[in-house]
Description:
By secondary structure, this protein is an alpha+beta fold. It has 2 domains: 1-32 and 235-355, no CATH class; 48-65 and 83-230, no CATH class. The protein is built from 16 helices and 14 strands. The protein has helices spanning 2-16, 18-27, 50-58, 78-81, 90-95, 107-111, 114-121, 125-138, 142-145, 209-219, 244-248, 253-259, 287-310, 314-321, 340-347, 349-354, and strands spanning 62-63, 87-88, 101-105, 146-154, 157-164, 181-183, 186-191, 194-199, 203-207, 238-243, 265-271, 276-283, 323-328, 331-338. The strands form 2 sheets. Strands 6-7-8-9-5-4-3-10-11-12-14-13 form a 12-stranded antiparallel beta sheet, sandwiched between helices. A two-stranded antiparallel ribbon has the order 1-2. A hairpin with a 2-residue loop joins β13 (323-328) and β14. α7 (114-121) packs parallel to α15 and α13 packs antiparallel against α14 (314-321).
Amino acid sequence: MALRRERLLRNVGYLLGALALLGLAAFLMREPEAPRLQRKALEFPRYPRSHEIERRETRKTLALPAPRPNDGGATAEPAEAEAPRPLADPVLVALASPDDMAFVLEAGALKDSPLGRMLLACQSPEALAEIERFEQRSGFRPLEQLERIGMTTHDGQPVMVLSGDFSSFDPSFSAPGQAVTNVGNARVLDSEGASIAVWKGQMLVIGEPSGVHSAIDRLEGASPATASFQSDEAYGEMYGSLSGESLSRLLPEDLRDQLWGAADRVLLHVDATDDLLLVADVSGRDAAKLADLSRAVAGALSLGRLGAVREDDQLLADLLDESRVIPSEGSFQLEVALPLSSVERQLGECAKAAR
């Protein structure tokens, strides 16, 4: 039973993780079928809710550099020079990358959801002890001070961006004795192959040195920021965007060639306030290639269903049972639902007590 629970926790964690969710989405596309009477009405995250719109506007606190006039070197008029600078969400600016891939997990909101409470209640004593050791070494309490977890890549290398209260975080906790330098509003620790930066006590950036310093440059206005997705696309307990090229690197080899050139962009949203609901908007310029891709993944879905039945994997069967594709011109939308009751049933008594 303990091994089964550990395996399930690991699987659900992957489901909530950015890459796992995207890989799952790729395998769950299929042609639409007749609606079933027993399916309950589900409110998929197709657009932001009122509290998410308010949250989005509140987070726009970073003044971006004023646009430079493109007038052949002529001096800007005084009125233009005094124009207000546009505001942006600093997390989205830090996640901007030429690799065009970024994901955000609303850790603070997820922690207070039924799913989050279940996952926390079913953690092993070893995992809880590891969190406590981390708090003692770093001066940071993730369950209380963490707001968002973001991920992007820079030249193919992962960069993590965490937001919250990092005023007490010591960037040198992992490398005692190494110097911490100031770069604008950031405190940066550079070590061999990795860097840690705390920006304004509200953001932590971790990754390969060039990726971390590139994020700090964007936050300090030293380089332009072209976000992978706009602030009005930032809603749900998880959201993200990636290019078709980035997605192709995550898929099995037999689907990679069919995806190449079909999908230009995938926009992902997950609602975890009750049931786990996923919406993936896949768009591309070649409608015929998108249709071919959908049919190819439908075959993979059929194989997945057969495997779930053969291996008696109830969690996967529930997931595959609540999926559908909504086609459109030049795009399609994937909807996937995992009932919270399925997660509770698999986790066991610890989940029932936490719900």
